[in-house]
Amino acid sequence: MAAGQDPEESGVISLLDDEYARAILVESSREALSASALAERCDASEPTIYRRIEQLREYDLIVEQQQLDPDGHHYKTYRTRVERVTVEIEDGECSIDVSRREVDAADRFTRLFEGLTEP
Known about the structure:
Elements: H1 7-17, H2 19-30, H3 35-42, H4 46-58, E1 62-68, E2 74-80, E3 82-90, E4 93-100, H5 105-117
Antiparallel strand pairs: 1-2, 3-4
Protein name: Helix-turn-helix transcriptional regulator
InterPro entries: ArsR-like_HTH, WH-like_DNA-bd_sf, WH_DNA-bd_sf
Pfam families: HTH_20
């Protein structure tokens, strides 16, 4: 990490340097996808996809949503929050700005409800 660089900025840069993390962000920008669908589209194993999803969630670059199958089972899907990443290098300093999409009220309510029902 460069002197004076924010640890969060360094983490975002590292994630964006990872081919699977970038692929997840691109694929989930089109539509919300399950981890298995992301594994197929990104040509990666599910454990690899789950590891990257956790890293992306740590930096609030992806959001998790609950979906209901017609048979009544629940599963998670993921959708990118990233709209734009800007890197500025000026006067010997490097800064990163991540513009994120807003999470809609229904998604916030779902996450709140899930938090109340989990053991």
